[in-house]
Amino acid sequence: MNRIINKWYLILLVGIMASVTSCEVDEIVDPNNPSLAGVLNDASKAEMQTLVYGLEARNRDYLANAVQMFGAFGREVWPYFASDPRFIPDWLGIGRTETYTDFFTSAGTYLTPYIAVKQANVLIQSADNSSALSTAEKAGFKGFAKTIKGFQLLWPLMQQYQNGIRVDVSDPLNPGPRLSYTESLTAISEILADGLKDLNDAGSTFAFALTDGFSGFDTPDGMKKVNRALAARVALYAGNNAEALNALNASFMDLDVTSATSGKMNIGPAHVYGEAPDLNNPLYYPYDRPTSTILIVHPAMIEDALPGDARVTNKFIKRVANPVTSNALKDINGNLLVGEYQDNRWASNTDPVPFIRNEELILIYAEAKARTSQPGDAVNAINKVRNTWGLPDYSGGQSEDELIDEILFQRRYSLWGEGGHRWIDLRRTNRLNSTYVDLRDLGSLYTQVSRRSSEISWDEG
Amino acid sequence: MKQLLTKAGALLAFCLLLSGTAMAQFKTTGIVKDAKGETLIGASIIVKGTAIGTVTDFDGAFELNVPGSSAVLVFSYTGFKSAEFPVSISSNNLDVTLEDDIARLEEVIVTGLGSGVKRANAGNAVTSLSGEELTGNTSPQTVDNALFGKIPGVNISANSGAPGGGVNVQMRGVSTLGAGSSQPLYIVDGVYVDNSVIRNGRTQVSGASGGASAATQDDAANRISDLNPDDIEKIEVLKGPSAAAIYGTRANAGVIIITTKKGASGKTRVSLSQDVGVAQGQNFQEFDVWDAEKISSFFGTGARGQAELAAFNNSGGRVTDWEKFFYGENALLSNTQLSVSGGTEKTQFYVSGGLQTEEGIIKNTGFDRYSLRANIDHKINDRVKISFNNSYFRTDNDRGFTGNQNNTGGSIGYAIAYTPSYADLLPDANGNYPDNPYFNDNPVAIRDLSRNNQVVDRFISAASLEVDLFTKATSYLKFKMNGGADYLSGNSIVYFPEVLQHQRANANPGDVMWGRQDNLNTNLQAFLQLNADLGSINSNTNVGWVRLDQEAEFLLSRGRGLAGGQTNLQWAKVQSVQQQQNQNVTDVGIVAQEDLNWQDRIIVSAGVRFDKSTLNVQQDKYYAFPKASLAANIHNFDFWNGNVMNQLKVRAAYGETGGLPLFGNTFESLTSQLVGGQLGGQVSTRGVDPDLVPETASELEFGLDAGFFNSRVSLEATYYIKKVNDLILDLQPAESTGITAIATNAADLENKGIELSLSLNPVRTTNFNWFSRIMWWKNESVITRLDIPRFTTGGFGPSLGTYLISNGFSPTTIIGNPTVAESPETTGRTVYGDRQPKFQMSFYNEIKLLKNLDFTFLFHYQNGGSVINLSALLWDDGGTTNNWNGDDDGDGTPNGLDRLLAWAVDGNTGVYVQDADYLKLREVGLYYTFPKIASKFIERAKIGVSANNVLLWTKYDGYDPEASNFGTQAVTGNIDVTPYPSSRRLFFHLKLDF
């Protein structure tokens, strides 16, 4: 009996061991997200649409850092951000004259726009590989993607300036060379031109929808106008004034603006925001709340303003009950500098933020005209801006230098808090010095930000 | 899985149907005592060569039916040398005396999944701790908190002083650079238990996210804190791959095996213990005094300085010591444990209930644990044994708001760094809290009105089956099967009400984060064990199969813009899902192990485990983890003359283990993002190398164990070289590619260490027994291969101190500014220290006086190690550092400003990287056991006083050199940002046995 039981045990146990050990394990795929390979290989139209909205989402991520950090560089703003003791000394160059590798909170205008570029490149590749799209539909996706890609590449270039940047970045393990500042501007301009070509082949409608931010620009024809507006900005930076004027002609520029139609100044594509899980408008701060973390308007913006300039009241508002101070921000006598004005442009934290506006295009027009010896047209455009905001006609000198000074002054107020125009403008016109910048905060002026360690390391191998 | 359970059930049912076979047998009885004549309760008695056995009852007595007409009984008891005595029908009553086993050579320690070996024969240094060693000296809050200074080769560090745990346990150096688990695998009664940290979203609510690290700053506890330390019979620690190889693919960081208490047959024993204590904050920094002079030197003499001076003058001399105010609560601690155990020869049980309630030293914080346990062992017949271990835990943890924050003021420690002593923060008669003009919020309001609570309900159930398939004089074959489930349900809330100052500055005031976690681990293993005497060699063979399944579902929901006083998400204007994360993981392994023992002289062991896991990129590929060990007991050879040196063992062991990538790291996926009401899919910034393999560790360990004077002096010395290969690192492409990380096998590292343990029993008399143990251990780590560019990682970036990963450097090297032009190997930065200590030591003493009085203490010393002390930076920045306004160097600039300027202007990060040397009196206890009480009711009574972490000596300028703002980190811990201060704990104990 004993033996028999043993045998039965053995047979049973061997059987169990065999059956459990042969147990197959099912392959686990990401239970939380769709896979990248799926869209790259053969995306459906719905998947392409998802990538388009994803690009719109990525397209706005640079904004806060551009407004805050570039704005601080050019003293449009002071960053009263008590959350980290480095914001004030590092961004304003107090106690230092140069930035450093991996400069404090600077990835927002470097890595972040490149992430948008990656999204655009994936969108382009997915369009090429999708069997669900016609040739014209593919061209629509690619034209949109290239337009945004060109725009995004401007941000790292503005940050890095003479360091130059990489433009060919589609293969993460085999990135293209670093181009000089000038070469980079040329490359960006070519990407935009390439996008324009695609848009020309895209028929009359897109095979995808865009958010309200592109309302009025959500057809191939509309997108071409955005594309050319961006090309005008790039051409201006590159000093190609004729090209800038050409691009403006094909853009949405509208010179017919008066104070009665001042809303036209704001025409342009915008970044959109919402409540969570969307992102809030990062520039919005509730009015006059007690906080030690707020972006403050540089007092020189108020002090230097011409009387009656409506832009001042439109954009700035005094914090009556809660002016802010920071122990890190003192004047030459050791007294704390008081932050009195905050951004008044946004009614709520879901307001859209235009990323290129008619007002900028008019000022590009003025500058390109001034630089191509057409002062009459330049002054005319300057006066469009001045009159719109309640200022009398320009009465200064007509020399190119004087006109540039005036245009830069208008750009300072028209484009305040829109991505660090002041810093970029003074730099490209050789005016980035204490004559043009109020340095009562005892800081210094940076020309550019140091290269990122990941880039240096990659080049060193 | 369900199928497996069904199969297990069928097998069990089959076994239950089998009845024992009748054969000749006789009854033996007896009593077991120690050398002093005290009876030993729960000593085990086994008929040699069989599985038949019993344990002694409360009076040390036993009764056992022995088959046949004569046999040899083997007596064993933890802490005593085992002994063999012959019995027969004619000589069936034994009075057995067991000898003390001071060096614990007889103790059986784990070497394989299916088997163990006597410590004397082990090829590895395996540390084991009895329940008495764990909780006998004082009352620890959590299991990992009870391990400090008790295990050589293990560096343990509390992440903060918050009640409820949060401990980093790092065995034999660095096991991963962060891609795998840096924490040991915990096995409780054979069940793989969850030791994860559940996110609660405090990081988001307090705005602490940011910096160079993606790690969260929730300050949540690791879940081993759910276990009740008082239930533990024994902990065994497999520190490195040579010992842990048989656990395969999850064992790179070591394995901690926990066995819970079991019942003993005989009289039912009821045990009640009550601890009452108090916790107090320690090492307060004594914030600087504010007076007119200090105000003008800190705030200047301008408008702000004038305003502050006026505020100071108007304060009417009201001065608050904010440290004492917030951290000065006398926290009440109570721990009640009740257990009932007993049983018959066939069935033994241990049931217990525990209630531990602990307040924190900050108001509205605390930790409660409720636990229930039922462990049942039953012999169906002489061949079939089953056991069930079931436990339920509920922990309720309020951890408050400390540590980092951004823009919210949602950290008491951070806020008071900036709040001068004359600030008025107390609520008025109507309960309205004034705004804090010095920070984003009023920390008193944060403390009183906010919530940070986590409740975890948890069931851990284990079942095992052991069948003797056949038993002969020289061989036996056993089948063992065990498995179990660990189910964890966590609920958390982090809440800032709308009335808070910083919330009122938001567009949608009021912020709540609800977290919901469901984790289920199930595992099953089946083994065949064949033991045979082959001449003078005993052979023990194990083959088996194991499977582990893990399911986890996590949901973190957020509501902003709350209706007054409401926390329900439906009363939030903006409702959103912060994170939803589901996980499924399956591991399958096959194990074989062979142990050969030649007369306890030479013991050889070899084994291999093959594992596959769905966490790998190649989900169906088996990876092999071999091991081998050799132990030679020189003293057992005939030539040995052991008058002075009674034991000499040399041992060597080699083993390999694996480390799995964290879930999700092998997927390339899109992430969702809403934009203007539309749903976008964003390309992730992470990529994966398609050829990615798991991290593997190999370890070679040599050791020598020696005993002198009958083991009154014993030494255990171990040297190890632990290499971790194919470390998964993020290859950082040029950031311009929009990909910030590609997971790839890019590095190797090497840990070398020494572990020494010297035990002494200098005095050993009936009335005075002194036992002393000195442990000393060190580990050095170095990166030996790095295929990707050197990089910095963790913390808040170079200017605030970060970690360097560079070939030839320790992976825990701390670097910072300024830039050193000529030093590319440190990415051009200055090296300031290493997170790992140079060495650690502990000194344990146990003195027994007059049989009744026990005095124990444990010192723990750490030499070396550095901490990035950002608390000190914040205190300097806020002017609160002690003697901020002094001028030690006489340069006219206050001390605090001197340091701050050296950091900010000279760019010297080293100002705030500080030495972490410390000496702590970890445990001290004094107990008195009453002589036999004349009460029929009470069997034994014991009272005592004890203390935990009662004394701390350190030069470190912070509350405790143990700190990790980012929680448990493989590499990048030791970052101190105004954490919850640590506390000393003082107890009174009462223990009654009925």
Structure description:
The complex is a heterodimer of chains A (461) and B (994). Chain A has 17 helices and eight strands. With 461 residues, chain A is mainly alpha-helical. Chain A has a single domain (38-276, 353-460), classed as Serine Threonine Protein Phosphatase 5, Tetratricopeptide repeat, CATH 1.25.40.390. Chain A has a four-stranded antiparallel sheet. In chain A, strands 2-3 form a two-stranded antiparallel ribbon. In chain A, strands 4-8 form a two-stranded antiparallel sheet. Chain B has 994 residues and is mostly beta strands. Helices cover 9% and strands 50% of the residues of chain B. Chain B has a 22-stranded antiparallel barrel. In chain B, a hairpin with a 3-residue loop joins strand 35 and strand 36. In chain B, helix 5 (292-299) packs antiparallel against helix 6 and helix 11 (870-878) crosses helix 12 (895-904). Chain B is globular and about 105 Å long. Chain B starts with a helix and ends with a strand. Mean pLDDT of chain B is 89; it is low at 1-22. Chains A and B meet through helix 1, helix 2, helix 3, helix 6 and strand 2 of A and helix 1, helix 6, strand 22, helix 10 and strand 24 of B.
The name of the CATH topology of chain A is Serine Threonine Protein Phosphatase 5, Tetratricopeptide repeat
- Counting helices, strands and paired strands, the structural category of chain A is mainly alpha
Please report which band the strand proportion of chain B falls in: under 5%, 5-15%, 15-25%, 25-35%, 35-45% or over 45%: over 45%
Q: Could you say how many structural domains of chain B there are in total? A: 1
The average pLDDT of chain B is: 89
Going by CATH, the homologous superfamily of chain B would be TonB-dependent receptor, beta-barrel domain
Q: What fraction, in percent, of the residue positions of chain A are helical?
A: 40-55%
How many β strands of chain A by DSSP? 8
The CATH topology of chain B: Maltoporin, Chain A
Order of helices and strands of chain A: HHHHEHHHEEHHHEEHHEEEHHHHH
> From the helix content, strand content and strand pairing of chain B, which structural class follows?
mainly beta
Figure out the total of helices of chain A: 17
Name the biggest interface: A-B, 115 and 114 residues
